[in-house]
Structure formats: C-alpha cells, structure tokens
Design brief:
Strand content: 15-25%
Shape: globular
Distance between the termini: 24 Å
Order of helices and strands: EHEHEHEHEEEHEHEHHHEEEHEH
Largest sheet: 8 strands, parallel, barrel
CATH architecture of one domain: Alpha-Beta Barrel
Strand order of the largest sheet: 1-2-3-4-7-8-9-13
Radius of gyration: 19 Å
Structural class: alpha/beta
CATH superfamily of one domain: Luciferase-like domain
Helix content: 25-40%
Oligomer: single chain
CATH topology of one domain: TIM Barrel
Number of strands: 13
Length: 356
C-alpha cells in the first residue's frame, strides 16, 4: 500500500505542561517565552513540519501573543495556533489570524477549540453550534469578501478586514471532538479532524464515520492524530523511560491536574479514561500504545512507546487508516522532540499538509 506523505507536528508547552516526571512540576520547565521559544526552535531545526501552540485560560502563556513573537524567528515550519471559540469577537479574530499569516508568509494553521469559557456553561448542542458559526465566519472574513451572515449566535453585515484581502490561500482549520455534536461540527466546517489516541479498531470506526458525515455535507476531511511518543534505541529502554515518567506521581496530584482542565468532563476525555481503564496491568491498551500518560493530564492521554522500528510501524499503521497529520509530544518536550527527530522522523515520508 502506497502511503501519502504525512504532516508531522510537535507541541510547544504553553500551558505549563512540561515535565521530567509527570505530576512533579519543575520551575525550569514551567511555561515562559524563553522555554517555549526553545522548544519551537528545536522543532524547526529538527525538521518538523508544524508546531501546535495550545491554549489554556488559567495556565501558562497566551498562544496568540506567543505566535506573534515566535513567527519572525521561524523560516520554514508552520504554526498551529489554538483558539477557543467565544473568547474573541470573530472579525477581530479573523484580523489577528490574517496578520499572523502575513507575518509567517502563509504558514499559519488554526486549531479550533470548543470548550466552555470560564464562568460559562453551555449545553453541547448550542456550544458546538457556536463553534460551527465561528469556523464558517472565519472562512468568510478571511476570504476578503463582504460578509452577510445570520446565525443563532452571530449576525454580521460588514466588510471583511482589509488585511484578509492580502491572503493568497485558505487558512486551514483543525478541529477535534468525539461527541455527536462535535462530529457534526467537524463534518460541516473543519478541514482537518483531529483525534486523540485510541486503538486501531476504534480509529478505523471514527475515520469511517467522519468520512460519511462529511460526504453528507458535500465535503471531504483530512485526518490528524494527537499522541505522545517515547522512543528509545530498544523497546525495554522505551518502556523503562515511560515508567520513569510516573515514578514520582502522586495519584491525588494526578487527579488535581486533570480536574483543572475546562474540558475535564468532555466525551473525549471520558474516552481517554475508558481506554486507560481497559488497558492491561502494564497500562498498554494494545501493542505499543501506553495509557499511563493520562494518569497525570487531561486530554490526550496515551503514548506510542517502543524502539524506532516499532514507533515507525505504529505511525504507519495509523497512516494506512487515513491519518494525514500527526501532532506529537513527549516529556520533556525539547528532549523528546530531539530523540524522535533522530530515531524516526527521517524515516517518515513527511511534508506540510496541503489544504486546497
């Protein structure tokens, strides 16, 4: 089977999410401009195609401000800027995105997040309806044309921001979510459907379902997979490194870390907990898919663990199921980015994702 090139992105720990030992914060790894800049520069020098800039309200540093600061320092790599729906007025957000894309010479991508805002609780259906409207509005405003839009949450009749007229392409929208409402939102308006770690059969089901949903709306989706990696020269060394990550974890501290997230009760987070609960006593849900990471973080809660051949084979198995992009991370982030880049990245046929 011939596999198309995949986009390989790394993760910059803007949300105070960098550790040598999970659940044991280290001031040297706490989010700061300098620390996250170093991760970004490491990823660009190592050959990654893109870099996720995550967003969190209470933790870390701001993704949009960091994106603007790091953009002039990068010559080749894309940035995947996470934005939270409802946080910013859509015309203003479109202007910021267009400005950042201009700064990067057309290399910006955007990760749409649909969580509640602090102090707000919306039911699933209206929250994802707002998300769909924002994705639709961003595409309209960034087209450079006048906008005449009437939805449930937003009504606009105005010109697009002037700077959007300088864009030479569509800015791709990455989006993820497992609930019925989230899947429908992605099918209606996203370009890349992102998923968290799961078993190969479960990934197959999700891809099949999402392709069918998108087709009903006359659309096609590309697919991305967000997962941690622990790669070492031998499988035993990789498993030992994974176990070492948990060697100082207090279960109560792990529970507290997970509870801090605004999406801690989401369908996707529950599925990560189910994956962890169904794993063997060693934490492996299937070959080389280790769920121990989820004991100390909300969201993406599993890692591909193994030697270079095993990690490469696992990624290629996901590619065979339809994955077009990977968003990877590891602990500490700069060190694991270097290890993956030396052991696996040169053997992956990879290139920035092309969204028409």
């Amino acid at each position: 089977m011939t596999l198309n090139p995949c986009e390989v992105a790394w993760f910059s720990a803007l949300c105070d999410d960098d550790y040598e030992f999970l659940g044991a914060p280290d001031p040297m790894l706490q989010s700061s401009f300098e620390h996250c800049r170093n991760i970004a520069l490491t990823a660009e020098a190592a050959g990654y195609d893109n870099l996720l800039l995550p967003s969190g309200y209470a933790l870390g540093i701001d993704s949009t401000a960091f994106c603007a600061a790091i953009a002039p320092m990068l010559k080749r790599m894309k940035l995947l800027l996470a934005v939270r729906c409802g946080e910013m007025w859509p015309p203003q957000l479109a202007r910021q995105i267009a400005t950042l894309d201009q700064m990067m010479g057309g290399r910006l991508t955007v990760n749409i997040i649909s969580s509640d805002m602090p102090g707000e609780t919306l039911a699933s259906a209206p929250r994802y309806q707002r998300t769909v409207e924002i994705m639709q509005l961003l595409n309209l405003f960034l087209s450079g044309e006048a906008v005449d839009f009437e939805g449930e949450f937003y009504r606009f009749k105005l010109d697009a921001p002037r700077i959007s007229k300088t864009l030479k392409r569509r800015v791709p929208l990455y989006f993820g979510g497992l609930s019925e409402d989230a899947r429908e939102a992605a099918a209606k308006a996203a370009d890349v459907y992102l998923m968290w770690p799961d078993t190969l059969p479960a990934v197959t089901e999700i891809v099949t379902d999402m392709r069918a949903r998108a087709a009903k709306h006359g659309r096609e989706l590309k697919f991305g997979y967000r997962v941690h990696v622990v790669v070492r020269e031998t499988e035993q060394e990789a498993r030992d490194a994974a176990s070492r990550l948990l060697s100082k974890l207090d279960d109560a501290e792990g529970d507290a870390i997970r509870a801090k997230s605004l999406d801690s009760a989401s369908y996707g987070v529950r599925r990560q907990a189910e994956l962890r609960a169904g794993a063997g006593h060693d934490g492996y849900a299937e070959d080389n898919l280790w769920t121990g990471i989820g004991r100390a973080r909300s969201g993406c809660g599993a890692a591909i663990v193994g030697d270079p051949d095993q990690v490469l084979a696992k990624l290629n198995a996901y590619r065979a199921l339809g994955m077009d992009a990977f968003v990877l991370s590891g602990y500490p982030h700069a060190a694991e980015a270097d290890l993956f880049a030396r052991h696996v990245l040169p053997r992956l046929d990879h290139a920035p994702l092309n969204i028409a």
